[in-house]
Amino acid sequence: MNQLTFLCCLFAVTYGAVDISPVNPLVKAGEEITLMCRSSKPLEAEDCVWTLNGVAIRVRDTSRYTRSGVLERGECGIKFVADERDQGKWLCTVYEGSEPLSRDTNITLYELPTVSLVPVGNIIEVVADEETILTCRADRGRPEPKIRWLIGDMPVESTETNVIDRTINGHVSLESRLIYRFKAEDHKKPIRCTAGIESGNAYAVATLNVLFGPQADQQESIQYGFVVGQPGSVVVNISANPPPSELTWYIGDVQVNGMGGSSSDGHFTARMVSSEDVLHRSILNITQLTQVDATQTYVLKATSIVNGVPATTEYRMRLSSEPEPVRDAASAGGSTIGIIVAVLAILVILAIVLVTRAKGLLCFKRKIPAEEKQTDREPSETESANQNTVGDEATVEVESKPESKSLSKRLRNMYGSLKTRSAKNKGEKIESDAEAAKPAEKRSDSVIYAELDLREVTGPQVVKDPQNPGTEYAEIVGIVPQDDKEIETKENAKEE
After folding, report:
1. pLDDT tens digit sequence for 305-347
2. Global pTM?
3. Which residues of 192-216 are buried (b: 16+ CB within 10 A; e: fewer)?
4. Are 17 and 101 within 8 A, CB to CB?
5. What pLDDT does residue 233 have?
6. Radius of gyration of the chain (CA)
7. Rounded to whole angstroms, how far apart are CA atoms 414 and 57?
8. From edge to edge, which strands make up the β-sheet containing 220-223?
9. Which own/partner contact pairs does 435-444 have at CB distance under 8 Å and 24+ positions apart?
10. CB–CB of 324/227 below 8 Å?
11. 387 close to 396: Cβ distance less than 8 angstroms
């Protein structure tokens, strides 16, 4: 006997201070069930009363209804093995004070229906592409079941369902009709009718025997690998249920019985081979292929009797001396994967090129001339802040970065160009670069501008040749005013 325990497992409906659980359960006959009524206060045995369909239930240890729960915790439960007598409305009444509190739940004993298919039998015969009506009956289910149709694993929606009987104790009988046009590919698939409720379902199943005439995938096909002067065979695969009753080959003006015949000169012979119940093969053998045979169109007419009516399909073939092309799905999938990998590789390469170009790496690195390599380098933080003092003179060298130097060169070039044009317009003498590089005479009313490089000087100062272009250097000489010298001398004398 299966035991169902619903304590603290299902949702309870809560109203005020009293709960009841489970709420409206579905129970199978013979299963044990516990109904629990909970109060917010401790209870005595006489404080809790159960009724079924308006009739009080005596809860005793010796009866089929026994107590469950702990009264001191406000639990007033009842436990029993369900049968037909227990179906209906259960009411729990708790007396916590002057006003009783009641909550109810409804027990339904479920029964799976008996399901059957019409036409009756393990095999149902239908005709392809013709409207067919099948009937499913679900008798005496409780509660009312839901009917579904499936062909194989595919649900079918073309149904009509009607209630044909409903009893006073809740049993319901249904009838469902499936209106459908079956296809040749439905042959040998299971047809299933299920009638289900929340706690389970029942079903009836049969196998479809679909009748259909010879099937042609395409109107005309090409067969490969034929060589003039050698024997060959033209093969046609035929899918039909029932098997073809008549096969005829047409080669120009020649007709050959495809069931097992030959041409008058014996040049063509034909036969039929059946591999399965719906798969058949017609083979036309050619003793020695001629040039005329290679250019002919070969026609095969296949006829089957379907439900007393002949169904004929025509197959047309042409011959080719080329080898048969490979039509492997795995190869096609491999080609697709190869294309995807190639595209991803190209994208990765493009990304690498863009990054290296943006950062000036690898082949995109800027080439530095030999002269710049000797004089231009990145100053460190120490060098940038370093200042060397020799005697009373302070020499400060500031080395510009390539970007700043390049900018200054461009500015000087632009200034020289403008100066040249201005001199030409005024008719003045144009000073050459060499003359401009000569040291300027010191004059009290002149101002000399220079670029400064901050560079550590470890030895005597080196003055570059003015003819050699490069970083220009300037010597900064500290000058102490005469008044400051007198003040400094006096202070030193006082200290002594």
Report:
1. 999 999 999 999 999 998 888 765 555 555 678 788 889 889 8
2. 0.57
3. bbbbbbeeebbbbebebebbbbbbb
4. yes
5. 95
6. 53
7. 113
8. 220-223, 309-319, 297-306, 246-251, 254-257
9. 437/466, 437/467, 438/466, 439/466
10. no
11. yes
